[in-house]
């Protein structure tokens, strides 16, 4: 059976002052209903561009989808009309962003905005839609939802605004919910509430969730499967337990061991030296080579492919040669 | 061990704009009777949610924000009593690095000038000596001297944080206030900077007042930890005691909220302590315990009587029902 959402060999290019750069290269991912896929990697690795591609929101120009397919229940989203995409967004696909203020309209009450989203996709009047909005605010844990529905976004705390975003995102029970660093701007206690809420919502109606984060701890708590991205490619992909307990790619190993853990102190953290290279400087070899302790001649001449060498798929010559 | 910094009952108030035309001007007490000690060569972590008063407490300690009352005994003298000239002399002993390495560096200055500036301002050494020191510091923080003539935008975020650290070290400070020094950085880069800060502390005998909302980072860097909630320290303890035997329900909630590799979705983890809601407003804080609205253990007395910091094993905790 094919997955609910399938991204296959996706390539996204941007026109920049350095010429055309490839922001996503050969990205393939799948998500099933009721499953959470965690996408992790340092900033600039292509996590958000992957999300925006699925939503049909790549700014164009300067960006364009240069190859591959994104299939939602078999329908290739890279080929549908803008009208069809608009109908799918909100109804079948929804996204919540890091900073909810950027996607909420400051001059409308949050109740009206959720009601508006409902009326866009369902044949209901405003009164009914507003009642549904209040029920949703209650569902996402906003106290006194009747009163809060009449508040403007700036009257709410960061955590409440993110709940409003979630209420709006799930108002039409989308099949795929993408959360792009949804808690980065929030305190940990509020982050924990938002994570618990996303899990409850998933249990309620079986949405597929793509959770984008740079936090391996969040991946551990939330994800069923994990894709690790580096410089526009997926470099490792497997069940969360496999990736976290048996990381293969040197980058994944580094990401896990450089976290200062709650359970220990003092010991020197393992570092990943250097930084993610800019897209216009990606060469013919492995993009991680400059930072990698296992690099050899092969790494400079050809890009390693994401293939399964035994444990689970990782794009690394050393792993594939059995050197590490 | 000698006490470098002894802060006693520090209180900071902000007077806010009038509400309406004739309304009173509300007073916000951002820091409420905060006391802590920092020993030479150690790092004290301050954790707590946004708005809990971490930055304000640290800034008031080094007199970059005015305190309403309290004492800040630094190397035996009360900084809050010093006149401006005397305080300027102390500035070389206390330096500061911020969260955002982007906005805290002048974009139009070469980094050599940025790093040298504190020595210029305080007229430390000859021009020759200053130049030599800048080069030494550059190496010390892991940058190459041939990068000295570049501008801040030509460096990555982690490198820019190294530049701010070099600048902070020019005057040979004894105390470094680090306000969320790695929050803006990617995890891989965070590790580089945390290792650097740990090395500098050991090699130079620096003391840190280290603010972070990331408990893992604090556990890694700090010897002692203070937890703030709504302007007050609600728990304070040596690192192990705080993380292994937290006594305050808020500390417990923070620890159970922090994402951890030890909790796995596949194993169906359940958060041990859950709290709801956001912190209350610092204007008109609750009369009793500030945590009462969110606390799973709250009783009647918590509403009426403010709990004071009391010893419990190695921890000091402000709660009627600790443990
Ligand atoms: N200059 C100011 N005028 C008025 N209120 C202020 C001022 N500076 C801080 N506050 C208030 O004081 C309280 C404590 O703020 P502070 O910046 O110290 O918190 P923090 O713990 O450092 O938070 P964060 O984690 O967001 O940095 C907050 O309620 C804040 O809004
Ligand atoms: N509008 C744009 N023009 C040019 N390059 C872009 C644009 N948007 C994103 N990129 C580049 O695409 C890459 C991936 O970005 P993004 O997906 O936002 O990363 P992240 O993993 O941090 O979410 C980055 O190198 C970024 O600079
Ligand atoms: S392919 Fe080579 S350089 Fe790239 S991660 Fe593997 S060993 Fe390192
Ligand atoms: S004093 Fe009461 S409300 Fe406050 S933390 Fe302790 S038990 Fe909870
Ligand atoms: Mg992003
Ligand atoms: Mg602060």
Give the low-pLDDT segments of chain B. none
Q: What is the terminal-to-terminal distance of chain A?
A: 34 Å
* Overall pLDDT confidence of chain B: 93
How many strands appear in the DSSP assignment of chain A? 12
Radius of gyration of chain A, Cα only, in angstroms? 21 Å
Structural class of chain B: alpha/beta
- Uncertain ranges of chain A: none
Rg over C-alpha atoms of chain B, rounded to the nearest angstrom: 21 Å
Order of helices and strands of chain A: EEEHEEHEHHHHEHEHEEHHHEEH
- Strands of the biggest beta sheet of chain A: in what spatial order? 6-7-8-3-9-10
Q: What shape does the CA trace of chain A take?
A: globular
Question: Which protein chains are joined by the largest interface, and how many residues does each one contribute?
Answer: A-B, 51 and 46 residues
The largest sheet of chain A, given as strand count, sense and whether it forms a barrel, is: 6 strands, mixed
Q: Helicity of chain B, in percent?
A: 25-40%
Helix content of chain A: 25-40%
Proportion of beta-strand residues of chain A? 15-25%
Count of helical stretches of chain B: 10
What oligomeric state best describes the polypeptide chains here? heterodimer
Biggest β-sheet of chain B: count, sense, barrel?
Answer: 8 strands, mixed
Number of strands of chain B: 12
- What class do helices, strands and sheet pairing of chain A give? alpha/beta
């Amino acid at each position: 059976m094919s997955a609910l959402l399938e991204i296959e060999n996706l390539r996204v290019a941007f026109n920049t002052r350095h010429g055309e750069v490839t922001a996503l290269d050969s990205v393939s991912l799948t998500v099933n209903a009721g499953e959470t896929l965690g996408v992790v990697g340092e900033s600039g690795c292509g996590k958000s561009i992957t999300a925006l591609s699925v939503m049909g929101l790549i700014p164009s120009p300067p960006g364009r989808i240069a190859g591959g397919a994104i299939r939602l229940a078999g329908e290739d989203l890279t080929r549908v009309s803008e009208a069809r995409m608009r109908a799918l967004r909100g109804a079948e696909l929804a996204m919540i962003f890091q900073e909810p203020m950027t996607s909420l309209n400051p001059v409308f009450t949050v109740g009206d905005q959720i009601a508006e989203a409902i009326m866009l996709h369902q044949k209901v009047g405003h009164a009914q839609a507003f009642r549904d909005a209040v029920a949703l605010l209650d569902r996402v844990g906003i106290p006194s939802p009747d009163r809060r529905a009449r508040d403007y976004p700036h009257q709410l705390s960061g955590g409440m605004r993110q709940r409003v975003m979630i209420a709006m995102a799930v108002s039409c029970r989308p099949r795929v919910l993408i959360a792009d660093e949804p808690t980065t701007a929030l305190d940990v206690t509020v982050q924990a509430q938002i994570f618990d809420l996303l899990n409850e919502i998933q249990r309620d109606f079986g949405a597929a969730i793509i959770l984008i984060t740079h936090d391996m701890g969040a991946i551990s708590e939330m994800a069923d499967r994990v894709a690790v991205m580096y410089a526009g490619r997926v470099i490792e992909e497997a069940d969360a337990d496999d990736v976290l307990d048996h990381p293969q790619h040197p980058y994944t190993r580094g990401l896990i061991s450089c976290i200062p853990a709650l359970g220990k102190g003092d010991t020197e953290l393992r570092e990943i030296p250097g930084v993610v290279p800019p897209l216009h400087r990606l060469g013919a070899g492995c993009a991680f080579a400059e930072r990698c302790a296992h690099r050899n001649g092969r790494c400079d001449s050809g890009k390693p492919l994401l293939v399964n060498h035994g444990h689970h798929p990782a794009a690394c010559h050393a792993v594939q040669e059995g050197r590490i | 061990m000698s006490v470098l910094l002894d802060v006693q009952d520090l209180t900071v108030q902000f007077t806010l704009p009038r509400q309406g035309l004739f309304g009173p001007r509300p007073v916000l007490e951002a820091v409420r009777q905060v006391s802590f000690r920092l020993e030479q060569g150690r790092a004290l972590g301050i954790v707590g949610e946004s708005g809990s008063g971490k930055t304000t407490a640290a800034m008031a300690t080094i007199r970059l924000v005015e305190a309403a009352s309290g004492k800040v005994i630094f190397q035996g003298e009360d900084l809050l009593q010093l006149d401006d000239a005397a305080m300027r002399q102390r500035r070389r002993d206390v330096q500061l690095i911020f969260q955002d390495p982007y906005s805290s560096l002048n974009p139009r200055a070469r980094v050599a000038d940025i790093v040298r500036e504190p020595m210029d301002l305080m007229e430390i050494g000859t021009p020759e000596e200053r130049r030599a020191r800048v080069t030494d510091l550059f190496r010390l923080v892991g940058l190459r001297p041939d990068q000295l003539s570049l501008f801040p935008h030509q460096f990555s975020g982690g490198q820019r944080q190294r530049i701010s650290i070099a600048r902070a070290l020019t005057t040979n400070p004894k105390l470094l206030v680090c306000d969320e020094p790695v929050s803006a950085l990617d995890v891989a880069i965070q590790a580089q900077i945390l290792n650097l800060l740990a090395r500098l502390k050991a090699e130079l005998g620096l003391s840190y007042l280290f603010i972070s909302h990331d408990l893992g980072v604090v556990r890694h860097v700090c010897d002692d930890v203070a937890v703030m909630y709504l302007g007050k320290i609600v728990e304070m303890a040596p690192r192990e005691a705080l993380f292994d035997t937290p006594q305050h329900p808020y500390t417990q909630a923070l620890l159970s909220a922090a994402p951890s590799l030890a909790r796995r979705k596949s194993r169906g983890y359940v958060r041990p302590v859950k709290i709801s809601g956001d912190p209350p407003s610092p204007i008109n804080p609750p009369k009793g315990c500030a945590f009462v609205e969110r606390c799973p253990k709250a009783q009647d007395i918590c509403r009426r009587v403010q709990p004071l910091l009391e010893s419990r094993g190695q921890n000091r905790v402000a709660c009627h029902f600790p443990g």
